[in-house]
# Entry
Amino acid sequence: MRRTLVAGNWKMFGSRALLAEVIGALRDVAGEASKVAEVALCPPFPLLAPAAELLAGSGIGLGAQNLHAAAQGAHTGEVSGAMLREAGCRYVIVGHSERRRDCAESDALVAEKAAAALREGLCPIVCVGEDAGERAAGRQFAVVERQLAAVGERLGAEGLAACVLAYEPVWAIGTGRTATPAQAQEIHAFLRARLGERDATMAAGVRILYGGSVKADNARELFAQPDIDGALVGGASLSGHDFAAICTAAEGKRWNN
Ligand code: 13P
# Structure
């Protein structure tokens, strides 16, 4: 059974005022949605504590956007998994393409971060996805396979079972150019097949989210695909109205396996 998950990645946007607005809108739908779909919000680090307060008792999950691979240490400006856990996080995004690009995060480092998250009892949302050039060259399958393999080798089937994957084609992020449901489904099925080579039960249980210009008006068709188990939403999660509409669309997905 895979429970649909809709997670909002605020990136480096937002404020306390926006938290109150968006969480207010989510509370209106998440009571209903929580029966069939799970909702999570991943704001920037300074907003985690106020978000945790606003989310208390709502059933809506809290997530961070990054963590350091080490448990603690002299790493100025970094944040550990234990700190995130203490701040009330259930999830942490690792390997987002913006961090792979801006911070030169390698496949190996992403795998270490996923392992660090699991050590602290956090659920890593592991992002994979090809860029426009790689897709133009027909290399999308090879790229996501390589990115997933690095995490799989580090965590094994048992660790993968405790992760969420997110397929985020770089060319669809923030561009308004969503992958078609068929394009996304093709990669999701491919990722699940690769997981299945390690362990069929694990593969059937791991949630694979789609991310890249998910909006209220395209969410339903994406969620209708058999291997799309929810969404990692960027820009649209900054509007209470739009994010709530995507969460409501996820209710239509119901439970599947
Ligand atoms: P957009 O929804 O703004 O395209 O961002 C997607 C994303 O990167 C989520 O992590």
Summary: The first helix runs from residue 16 to 33. Residues 4-252 form a domain with the TIM Barrel fold (CATH 3.20.20.70). The chain has a mean pLDDT of 95.
